[in-house]
Specification:
With 283 residues, the chain is α/β, with parallel strands linked by helices. The chain has two domains: 70 residues, no CATH class; 198 residues, Vaccinia Virus protein VP39 (Rossmann fold, 3-Layer(aba) Sandwich), CATH 3.40.50.150. It has eleven helices and ten strands. Helix 2 runs antiparallel to helix 4 and helix 5 crosses helix 6. The structure holds S-adenosylmethionine. S-adenosylmethionine binds next to loops.
């Protein structure tokens, strides 16, 4: 295990590198995180010291070392239908209303983005609800493929898990009612559960950094950006929500985490209580 207490300037260099790579600012009070999460990676890299390790990460053209650092320093906590209440608003109001736009021919497709989607539970929760709405007849006349769901994350490790749609016993038990587990997952080797292809195929995953320009992603009717901005500094948060505003259609919605709110950007978004939960409507 690395011990940064002897050389605080090494910790500062690593902290700067992580902040540049993914905008997550971990101060010196998070020394234990760097030690616990990066110690093995540093040792395996063969670098003789931290400046050499960072030079190696910057120079490596495959980006593999950089990805490993990002994978290990980002927090991937997520679960199905996280926070429950806003998902009820999605199921009862928002997604049926978006469906109506398709049914009435006002739109030919509905685009939904889960920004910083971790291992996929968030965009798949949307896909599961859409499937339920279709089965219950609320999306009659709508081809489910008219809903285009994209999930992105910076972490290749979590994106790999997301694309596989395969979850451990613990992951499957977090927030997922039995109805979904019994109907949309197959029991797979290693005590895992794998989402059925019909749900998996509803979501496309991409590797993207929240620092990137989003314009190439196109315009979305609903954007989820949940439980990630809490790790960012104020200036970056402001910039992030301005850039998200650019890719949300007029009248489109932004959904934040259960404990998050957007007090800036009143020129772009209006807070709206939809069936008991707050969403942010693009002006
Ligand atoms: C705590 S999880 C939240 C997952 C999900 N949105 C939810 O609310 O359950 C945060 C995710 O943000 C991703 N992340 C952190 N910094 C990022 C960045 N700069 N660009 C894209 N994704 C990032 C992490 O890899 C992680 O998967």
């Amino acid at each position: 295990m690395f011990d940064f207490s002897k050389n605080p300037s090494d910790l500062k260099l690593l902290s700067q590198y992580v902040a540049e790579a993914c905008c997550i600012h971990l101060g010196e009070d998070k020394r234990y995180l760097f030690e616990a999460r990066l110690g093995k990676i540093i040792a395996e890299s063969g670098a003789l010291d931290i400046p050499a390790f960072i030079r190696m990460a910057k120079a490596e053209h495959t980006g593999k070392l950089r990805d490993k650092i990002i994978d290990s320093m980002t927090t991937h906590e997520t679960y199905w239908f996280r926070d429950t209440r806003p998902w009820e608003s999605l199921e009862n109001t928002i997604l049926p209303e978006l469906g109506k736009l398709l049914q009435t021919g006002k739109k030919s497709r509905i685009r939904i983005l889960s920004a910083a989607c971790s291992s996929g539970q968030e965009p798949y929760s949307i896909a599961l609800i859409l499937h339920k709405l279709k089965t219950s007849g609320l999306l009659n006349g709508v081809n489910i493929s008219s809903f285009e769901i994209t999930g992105f994350d910076i972490s290749p490790g979590t994106l790999f898990l997301a694309s596989a749609g395969r979850y451990s016993q613990l992951e499957i038990s977090r927030g997922l009612p039995d109805y979904w587990k019994n109907n949309f997952f197959d029991s797979t080797p290693g005590n895992t559960w794998t989402l059925k292809p019909e749900i998996r195929s509803m979501v496309t995953f991409k590797k993207r950094n929240l620092q990137d320009d989003f314009m190439s992603l196109g315009v979305f009717d609903l954007v989820l950006c949940r439980n990630v901005a809490i790790y960012f500094e104020e200036d970056f948060k402001k910039d992030l929500f301005s850039r998200l505003g650019q890719i949300i259609a007029p009248n489109g919605l932004l959904m934040l985490g259960g404990t998050e709110s957007l007090l800036t950007h009143k020129h772009l978004f209006a807070a709206e209580n939809i069936s008991g939960s707050y969403f942010y409507r693009r002006n």
